[in-house]
Amino acid sequence: MKKSRSLLGIEQLEPAEISRVLRLARRMHGARPRPLLRNRRIALLFYEPSTRTRVSFEFAAKALGAITTLVQATASSIEKGESLVDTGLTLRATGADAIVIRHPSSGAPHLLARHLDIPVINAGDGMHEHPTQALLDAYTILRHRKQLRGLKIAIVGDIYHSRVARSNIHLLSKCGAQVVLCGPPELLPEVAASLGPGVRITRHIDEALRGADVVMVLRVQQERLAGLQLHMDEYIAGYQVTPERMRLAKRDAILMHPGPMIRGAELAGDLADTPASVITEQVANGVCVRMAVLLTALGAAP
Ligand code: NCD
Asked: Cα–Cα distances in Å, from 66 out to 35, 37, 61, 252?
């Protein structure tokens, strides 16, 4: 029996482990479904809204023959005040073999993993990490480029509040990409450059996009601004990714966004529908990548 293990973040992973998951995802991509997780029970514990992440975890689990149940903060005993750890122990007692958790507090999956003897998979914790999103983003880039090493990857937008940005910065810099972060000081503190080797910051979007292989756009996380007064018209003037700005990137550059995107805010209205956009592909790739993550976590990789 192979050892099962949690996926809490990208920060703790070695490049070899990242490659292993991506290779497994490639094998799962479009493959005939095999019940490698037949009758395994996977609890999806979501304390925050989610569309893509939840649905793709559920489809990934079911494609492998697993049984899933969705527990949401409303409509469960969480609403009655049950603690996170007690909720986890309850799920374990009902026979859950793994828990996929999204939570508004950074570190919530780590707390759960410390108290449980089943794998915990982080589906986004506060402003901290969103490892499966970074894995599916890397997977998507590698469908368009041979390797991550040496690529110029611009990440534009609300980086400070973004767990997607943090996980991507860890992954891309570990794998040798040049990561250029771009946003206003309120949404991108200088310290972000210390997240990994090869990471730098610019306040000028033209500089970020010039010669980029990949342009990754992030939503302004209004729900996490907590009193911060951000003038959206100024933000749009300085940082919105537009067709003109996109032309500074390489001719075959790809445009990415983890979703949900707010058209007309962080990116110009129909940019998502242009040939450079791989945004829908990212969503589609989420399924095979999460199949690979679940198989790895449950020690069931073929
Ligand atoms: C993001 C999230 O929830 O972290 N979405 C996602 O999972 N793809 C990004 C966001 O909310 O802006």
From this structure: 8, 5, 5, 39
Residue carrying structure tokens 């290779």:
23
Residue type (1 letter), 12: Q
Residues with a CB atom less than 6 Å from ligand 1: 52-53, 124, 130, 133, 163-164, 219, 221, 258-259
pLDDT tens digits, one per residue of 148-193: 999 999 999 999 999 999 999 999 999 999 999 999 999 999 988 8
- Classify burial at 50, counting beta carbons within 10 Å of its beta carbon; exposed 0-12, middle 13-18, buried 19 or more: middle
φ, ψ for residue 177, nearest 5 deg: -80, 160
State the Cα–Cα distance between residues 90 and 48, nearest whole angstrom. Answer: 19
Report how far ligand 1's centroid is from the alpha carbon of 122 (Å): 13
DSSP 150: T
Closest ligand 1 atom to the C-alpha of 130?
4
Helix (H) or strand (E) holding 283: helix 279-297
51-93 pLDDT, tens digit each: 999 999 999 999 999 999 999 987 677 767 678 999 999 999 9
Per-residue pLDDT at 131 exceeds 70: yes
- Nearest alpha-carbon partner for 177 in 214, 136, 202, 204: 214
Q: How many other CB atoms sit within 10 Å of the CB of residue 117?
A: 7
**If you ran DSSP here, which 8-state letter would residue 218 be given?**
-
Euclidean distance between CA atoms 67 and 58, whole angstroms: 9
Q: What is the pTM of this model?
A: 0.96
Q: Which amino acid is at 73?
A: A
* Ligand 1 centre distance from Cα of residue 1 (Å): 34
Residue 223's pLDDT is what?
85
Q: Phi then psi for 300, rounded to 5 degrees?
A: -120, 15
